[in-house]
Amino acid sequence: MPVPAAEHIGARIAWYRKLRRLTQQELADRAHISYSMVAKVEQGVRPATGGVVAAVARALSVQTTDLTGQPYLTELQQDELDGLIQPIREALDLYDLGADPDVVPRGIAALAAEADQLCALVRDGRLKDAARTVPDLITEATTAAHTAQTTEAWSVLASTYRTAYDITTKLGYPDLCVVALDRLDWAAERASDPVLAGMRQYLRSLVYLRAGQYRMGQRLVTVGMSTLALADPSRTRDVVTGQLHLGAAVLAARAGDGDTAAGYIAEAARVSEATGEATRVHWLSFGPTNVATHRVAVLAEQSKYGEALEAASGLTIPAEWPASRVAAHLAEVARAQLVTGRTDQAQQTLQRAREKAPQQTRYQPMVRETIAGLLSARRATPGSLVNLAHWVGI
Q: What is the distance of C-alpha 292 from the center of its chain?
């Protein structure tokens, strides 16, 4: 019997730990984390970081999604939107069937514009809207690519696969997001685009980051860098290169190598000086702002929460920055505020994240963990916090 979907991560960890007949100390030993951390996370007093979740998942022989839950699933079922997952799966399986004689595709420019709009929807946190559209666009772009056989057509198809990856990752379907990445690689090869191929290795490394397989993630970053070296010099190549450095920084921080992480952040900062803000280049949001938010995240991953808050305090986020990225950063700051005892500030920060990207914030595991921690930390629970907890399903 699965644990209830509304439970926080700590409750799920406790459930699986007891299922494995382990004590908290035994789990701590297996996961190579402190007993105190296990106890506080299970109680909901301390939010579980991505690194802790990955370590515990390995120790318990479960998937990270078993511990974080699949928070979109209940609402997807209620809205009968779970039926959109199967069409995405079917659309991803059309890649090698050639042109569909029953599909008359639009011109490549029109398809490229819609693919770009879908990327924007995801960045705005409007996942349901994107999920409704992407299967048909993949189907149409597949026929267009097989018919035209041009670099531009294959690149558009690759973009649709990228959006399918984003959607399935955020909805909690890791198996399907891996399929989408394989299709992206297939299209990038036909487009003869090393930048697309390098970006695919970056996205692939994030899959291993979430699974706690940091060494594999670091290897993929290295391969991505080598692939990008084959591309002609351009701002686009530099943007993807800089993003790979940021991914490598988080991987190193999760692996406990703070010095290496700092080195990658410094290199990404150097690249960002040349690129400037590049929010729309492959929708990676790379630039000085993304470097700054990653610096906060890397410090938090090392449990340097005071330093993370200090780094965040001097950060001004541009108005045009994607709502999803703003909300993710605010969730990171709120977690640090909770851990350092700034509970009122943490609640206010989460409210700002809710206003910026409500759909994403509502279902982000880190947000749910932080709210659970706030409920445990507050002697008297204000109505606004109760409202926030009900909103995320706690």
A: 17
